[in-house]
Specification:
Blueprint: H1 12-34, E1 47-52, H2 65-81, E2 86-92, H3 108-111, H4 124-134, E3 138-143, H5 161-164, E4 169-172, E5 175-178, H6 183-199, E6 204-207, H7 224-230, H8 241-263, E7 268-271, H9 296-300, H10 304-310, E8 315-316, H11 331-339, E9 346-352, H12 353-358, E10 360-361, E11 364-368, H13 370-379, E12 385-389, H14 391-396, H15 401-409, E13 431-438, E14 441-447, E15 460-467, E16 480-484, E17 488-490, E18 499-507, E19 518-523
Parallel strand pairs: 1-2, 1-12, 2-3, 3-6, 6-7, 7-8, 8-9, 9-12
Antiparallel strand pairs: 4-5, 10-11, 13-14, 14-17, 15-16, 15-18, 18-19
Helix pairs in contact: 2-4, 6-8
């Protein structure tokens, strides 16, 4: 039995949002099918994300601020060259920060010692947000909710909340965690989320697969105390600890979503869970996947399927890191299972670069599995894109991954699929589109139609180019020549003899695109 009555929505606004969200998800698929400009077939609409891990990455603590800035710019430039449109940056690996925070100390993964401030007060998250947006990439702030330390050798700064409230924490194996069963833990995590969303221009808050910790063989998670205090009062019997644990995480997910909504309703909340929800043998009705491995529901107490169904998260990126043909967790089996159990919400697939490019294609051993995986993902209408683990493999071009994406699968730019469950109305088209000579050259210029501070108005623009008398098809990504936040586009003027038609559309914060755009015919 699950009990969700412990969560209290903080305002009437959230109550309305909750019930509207449930209603909208039910017919979201139908809207997407009829939505003009949304096309999985052409891949004009596709989430193309990549994870930037900071835990276990020693390079950051060895760099000066100028070196860090150069490194981040090189990273984003390499991702832009491969037409990625989102980065997921690990901003809070261990209840610490890769950004300025008055709540938690600077991360030792960043400066080498927890609590030690960087030189010149450099804020890496602020820098990355600005640089990512310059390159028209979303920035998702990745937070690990419960983890506090990774090993017994980790030294916590004296300002850490651990020393102020040691009763909130549990040691399991060699690591320290917030006790998920305590309301105080959830309140603190939501405080961190609110602080980030309020002060930074993030596009989303992101959490991965670390909820209750991965089980250690022969060692029970030591939450007897919090279960004794809160289990019975929340309606759970002594044999229902697993249900109680799942409910604790459910409450946290709901509270985080509502924290975001009340602060900035356009910021999304996404999860990248472990790739297996439940194995078929663990379910009475056979509803699990035909796999044999660790399970979100039973082992990590993460009921991801429920979160998607209830609309508590805006996107889902299951980490399907295995190969096609894997004996225990076949990639094809899992991707198809998730498409049938995602309730019309945004589903992206977590891909492991190294494992994919090292695995042989079962039907063509001379090739790796990237082609087959991309073809499979794009053949499934319920899949809206991919997220690659991890950035550093793209930068190193492991197995030719960057070349393959740049020259084939990401050959043309792609817009992120619209979050229609959050907002469906299209923004207005641009105003005053014209071609004119500027000091730096010949350019298309235009004016926004509405205040950019309103997320329902244009936040960025798409520029298409068609030959004279060619039919205008805004579903064709090969016609996109720019995706930009500027209100101008420099034209490739040559002899002024050949006619081209340019179309400029507006796109809002939810990625809804104006219907027709404004057009201008020019001679180049």
């Amino acid at each position: 039995m699950s009990n969700y009555c412990n969560f209290v929505y903080p305002s009437n606004k959230s109550i309305i949002y909750y019930f509207m969200r449930k209603f909208i998800v039910a017919f979201c698929i139908c809207i997407l099918i009829s939505y003009n400009g949304f096309s999985q077939i052409t891949s004009k609409r596709e989430f193309r994300g990549v994870w930037i891990s900071t835990a276990w990455q020693d390079q950051y603590k060895k760099m000066s601020v100028p070196q860090l800035k150069k490194y981040f710019i090189q990273m984003l430039d390499s991702l832009q060259a491969c037409n990625f449109n989102a980065v997921i940056f690990q901003a809070r690996p261990c209840a610490d920060a890769f950004y300025y925070s008055e709540i938690e100390p600077w991360s030792h993964h960043f400066t080498g010692r927890q609590g030690k401030a960087p030189q010149t007060h450099f804020d890496p998250m602020e820098f990355l947000i600005e640089e990512a947006h310059k390159r028209h990439m979303e920035f998702h702030a990745w937070l690990n909710p419960y983890r506090v330390s990774m090993s017994e050798s980790d030294m916590l700064h004296h300002s850490h909340i651990y020393y102020k409230h040691p009763e909130w924490f549990i040691k399991y194996g060699k690591q320290i965690y917030f006790d998920p069963g305590l309301p105080q833990s959830r309140k603190h995590i939501c405080k961190v989320v609110k602080d980030i969303v309020r002060r930074y221009d993030v596009d989303a808050i992101h959490m991965d697969d670390y909820f209750y910790p991965y089980p250690i063989s022969g060692l029970s998670f030591p939450d007897d105390s919090s279960f004794a205090i809160y289990g019975a009062s929340q309606g759970f019997g002594k044999n229902q600890r697993d249900d109680w644990r799942r409910n604790n995480v459910n409450i946290l997910i709901q509270q985080i979503k509502n924290t975001i909504v009340l602060e900035k309703p356009y910021v999304r909340f996404g999860i990248s869970p472990f790739g297996i929800y439940r194995n078929k043998k663990s379910t009475l009705d056979g509803s699990g996947s035909n796999t044999n491995g660790l399970q979100n529901y039973d082992n990590l107490y993460a009921d991801v399927k429920l979160w998607v169904e209830k609309g508590w998260i805006d996107y889902n990126i299951p980490q399907i890191y295995w190969e096609i043909g894997h004996s225990a967790a076949d990639y094809e089996t899992l991707i198809k299972w998730w498409t049938l159990n995602n309730y019309g919400a945004h589903l992206y697939i977590g891909q492991d670069v190294a494992r994919t490019v090292k695995a042989k294609d079962l039907s063509n051993p001379g090739k790796n599995q990237l082609s087959r995986k991309m073809q499979l993902e794009r053949s499934l209408p319920a899949v809206y894109g991919n997220c690659f683990w991890l950035t550093y493999e793209i930068m190193k071009n492991t197995g030719g991954i960057a070349d393959s994406l740049r020259n084939n699968y990401h050959k043309y730019p792609a817009l992120i699929p619209p979050y229609l469950h959050m907002h469906q109305k299209r923004p207005k088209d641009v105003k005053s589109l014209r071609a004119q000579w500027l000091p730096q050259g010949y350019a298309l210029t235009w004016k926004p139609n509405g205040d950019k501070r309103n997320p329902e108005n244009a936040q960025y623009y798409v520029v298409y180019c068609f030959k004279d008398k060619e039919k205008v098809n805004l579903d064709d990504p090969s016609k996109i020549v720019a995706v930009t936040r500027n209100t101008f586009y420099m034209l490739p003027f040559e002899l002024g003899k050949i006619k081209y038609k340019y179309v400029v559309t507006s796109v809002d914060r939810f990625h809804n695109e104006s219907k027709k755009g404004k057009s201008k015919t020019v001679r180049l």
